[in-house]
Amino acid sequence: MCICHEVVFIKRLKAKNCPFCDVIRSKALAARLVWLFALTLTLPWTLIGCQNPDLIWDLVLPTTSTVITSLTHDPETVPGSTSGQTEVSSGSPVTSAAATETTAQETGPTSSRRVLVLPDDQFDQQIGDLVLTALQARQRTIVLDEVFQTYRVDETMVQATIDAIFAVYDEVFTEHPEFFFMSGSFEVSYTLLQGSRTSVSAMKLIPGFWPDTKQLTDQQLDQLISRVTDETRLIADQIRQQTADPIEQAILLHDWLILRIAYDPQADQDNNTIHSALLDGTTLCSGYARSFQMIGQELGLEVDLITGQSGGIGHAWNLITLGDHVYHIDVTHDDPLPDQGEKSPVNHRHLFRSDAQMGQTHQWQRSEYPACPEDGAFYFTRKDLAVASRKELARRLDDFLADIDFSKQMSNRLELLYTGDDVPSTERLQKLFADALRDVATGSSVVYRSDAEKSVLVMEVTPQS
Questions:
Q1: pLDDT of residue 44 exceeding 90
Q2: pTM of this prediction?
Q3: Residue 194: beta bridge partners?
Q4: Which partner for 16 in 136, 142, 286, 408 could form a disulfide, CB atoms 3.0-4.6 Å apart?
Q5: Which region among 61-65, 213-217, 356-360 has the lowest average model confidence (pLDDT)?
């Protein structure tokens, strides 16, 4: 006897700034009962829930059930026995399309397939090639059936296999910012063929899109991709015209994004995209980081995406490889709030930093990313904005304040990297700055602020009329 059951799940990346995930539920009681009965018969209960806190199962209850009267032969079934095939399928939560009917087809003796034992580099490579080729061709469905002609995946391995596929998909998606119109999630539909041993006979992925891109026609999507690509190349060309030095290019790109993009104060995850950042000028952390990655790659820089947390909130930033060294860059945290447009000050505290410096405020799974043992902070070292002692700091403060015209209501700002061992705290810096101001701004009314973090000292003063 062979009974084929198809159950549809969604495997989805958590939103970068959102700790919540939604369970999509059907309102049809009859469909729910059909699904529960089928799932009880065919799938282990370990499929329900999340064993890995970084990955989420969104359970999709079926909207219809279809009985297919065709017969399917399982090579492991006792010869001569056949049975009607029953399929339980689900409408896609992405498109709300009607349920799709599929049949499981075994194409050869089970003994010719390798039993999948994870991890398996060849399996990952085959999945990665299929996913990348399909995404580059903008296929709405990624068919993985050929993988299951190579590998035998028994019922007990379904969850682990989908986890492995998701990890590969996530890696491909993360490395290719040109797929910005997709959300990084996908729907996975697989067919279990039940005989003497129940195994996967077919599988397909349906990539997820952002709310503002999933309803676009192919022509409209082409236009959006063209606009973002043109903007990316324009920015890269402007930077190339100024310098061919990779470090200077990265600094210019960092500053360009900060001056022209505003952090979304409503924290709308729908704006957490490259196209929101580059076309609308508003985004969240992933939009900053993916824009830096995409334009950086257009410049020929080796830029990757890193995800973790900052302040207990999911966060995304970048890693850049320069020669044999890797550094952190967080454009989001260097963009001051509230945004002041192209007149906004630009921070460089999170530019070319080490694990030790970034680790003061950021958390990530360090084993999953290359180590960044050396602190670059090239913006400061190249522009003579580094001091190594309190005496040198005092001198730079005096020079900074001496250049201020206290008769003009204009903001003045000094950003220094302190390379000595006795880095002043924010409280100590505030006292030093206030004392220096009293010596030069007697009789003037001023607004000032200062802070020290990651060995970077920032001092600002604005005379008041």
A1: no
A2: 0.76
A3: 3
A4: 286
A5: 61-65
Rounded to an integer, what is the distance from CA 162 to the centroid of its chain? 19
Using the structure block, give the residue that is written with the tokens 């709308």: 268
- Residue-by-residue DSSP string for 152-202: E-BGGGHHHHHHHHHHHHHHHHHH-GGGTTEEEEEEEEEEEEESSS-EEEE
Cα dihedral across residues 331, 333, 339, 343: positive or negative: negative
The mean-pLDDT minimum among 22-36, 190-204, 366-380 falls in 22-36
Residue 237 in contact with residue 229, Cβ under 8 Å?
no
| Type of residue at 352 | F
- Residues 204-247 have pLDDT tens digits of 999 999 999 999 999 999 999 999 999 999 999 999 999 999 99
Nearest to 9 by CA among 20, 27, 24: 24
Written as six digits, the tokens of 234 are: 């324009």
* Size of the chain, expressed as the number of residues it contains: 465
Whole-number Å distance between alpha carbons of 29 and 31: 5
Least Cα distance to 343 among 450, 260, 427 occurs for 260
pLDDT digits (tens, 9 = 90+) for 398-419: 999 999 988 888 889 999 999 9
CB atoms within 10 A of CB 115: 11
Beta bridge pairs of residue 283: 263
C-alpha distance across the termini of the chain, in Å: 89
| Angstrom distance (rounded) from CA 261 to CA 341 | 8
